Amino acid sequence: MAEHTCSHFSAEPGSVEQALGALLEGVTPLAGERLALEQAGGRVLADAQIARLDVPAFDNSAMDGYALRAADAGKRLPVSQRIAAGSAPEALLPGSCARIFTGAPLPPGADCVVMQERVERDGDHAVFPDGLSAGDSIRRRGRDVAYGQELLAAGTRLNAAALGHLAGQGIVEVAVRRRPKVALLSTGDEVIDPGTPLGPGQLYNSNRPMLTRLLESFGAEVVRRVNVPDDVGQTRAIIREAAEVADVVVSTGGVSVGEEDHVKNALERLGRLDLWRLAIRPGKPLALGRLPKHGGEAKEGGEARFVGLPGNPVSSFVGAWLFLRPLMGALTGCAALATLPAMTATADFATRTGPRRHYMRAALAFTPQGPVATAFADQNSGVLSSCVDADVLVDVPPDATVAKGDAVTCLWLAGG
Predict the structure, then answer these.
(1) Domains in the chain, please, with CATH?
(2) 126 half-sphere exposure, CB direction, 13 A CA radius
(3) Residue 1's pLDDT is what?
(4) Is 18 helix (H, G, I), strand (E, B) or coil?
(5) Rounded to an integer, what distance in angstroms lies between the CA atom of residue 282 and that of residue 394?
(6) Can you give 316-355 as a three-state secondary structure string?
(7) Which residues of the chain have pLDDT under 50?
(8) Half-sphere exposure of residue 5, counting CA atoms within 13 Å on the CB side?
(9) Region label for 77, one of left (φ > 0), alpha (ψ between -120 and 50) or beta (otherwise)
């Protein structure tokens, strides 16, 4: 494979918005595939779904009771039929009522239902209260869904309710976006897998299981997990091989400028590098790039995207939410993943930032006075415990002072 140098990066620290612009430039949704509905949970619709049926399909009773004409309110009426769910009723005889159960079709001629608790039964007759109105306790045909309307838009992520919505139309198979294939690379001779005895200066790989879970929650499929030694030749070979099987190559560590940080060199030789020294905390070093494909399995677009996250676990955690989540959203056509939901909360902490934007890990409490954000005391990028119970990232601008009681912007860590 021919190697070349192609770099497009600035020496000045960039913003999150600039990095996202570079990362998402030219990204288009992956191809679709058809799946059985039972297998499509969490996937993203490739096409809009149009309603094939009215829901409900017929006027039906909202409760157990009696169907009658509202004009017969206050009367004693004979019970002319019994209508259970799933049965086909006869037309209601004039001057009569029908015993009816929840979900059963309304008989022709009836225009209201009275719950059984309001009816006095007298043998084969029923005595009704006054003041009934047409439409009482009836679920009208098409109240939920009308035939021909858009049921679900393309780009909808199929949660439990959406699956039920589709099943209610008799749909058994849907077209969904292919899950982005991700190769997850862990750099550094000092990083070893759990289960192996620690040697001098070594540490266990906490990033791999953490990022695997986050990527899967963002809709990706992690197809390769590889340890990358501190060797420039092996780093290039592993990155090149990863690009052949993945849509996105994600690395942790090796993106700074130290003598043992070989990722930047490898990207410059293999493809295109956008290296952003981001003005954020945590996560200042970030490598963004593109790697050409030469006959691998995931060949759409002819290239794989590369995201090099810092090795510190908190930096990787924050970087995954800020960059990997929107990238997976763009690849699956899911607009809901493009940005983290934002909300305003009251700060139960005080802080001051320097020239970098700070994403503080915080727990959120909902009080009668509104949401309150409590930042974890130790915000160091190596303190992963600050992420375990974090509900939000508090987005604090550079050169800002936050006092206890101030309003702060919180990014909700939803679905991770």
Answers:
(1) 6-31+178-337 (3.40.980.10), 34-54+145-177 (3.90.105.10), 60-139 (2.170.190.11), 342-412 (2.40.340.10)
(2) 25
(3) 38
(4) helix
(5) 12
(6) HHHHHHHHHHHHHHHHHCCHHHCCCCEEEEEECCCEECCC
(7) 1-6, 296-299
(8) 3
(9) beta
Q: Quick count: other Cβ atoms within 10 Å of Cβ 33?
A: 14
pLDDT in tens, 170-200: 999 999 999 999 999 999 889 989 999 999 9
Q: What is the pLDDT of residue 8?
A: 53
Three-state secondary-structure class, residue 163: helix
Whole-number pLDDT of residue 165: 97
Helix (H, G, I), strand (E, B) or coil at 390: coil
Where b means 16+ CB within 10 Å and e means fewer, 402-414 reads: beeeeebebbebe
pLDDT of residue 2: 43
> So what's the pLDDT on residue 253?
87
Identify the bridge partners of residue 78 per DSSP, sorted by sequence position: 125
What is the C-alpha separation between 95 and 79, in angstroms, rounded? 10
Residue with tokens 């858009």: 150
Produce one character per residue of 254-286: b if its CB has 16 or more CB atoms within 10 Å, e if not.
Answer: bbbeeeebbbbebbbbbbbbbbbbbbbbbbbbb
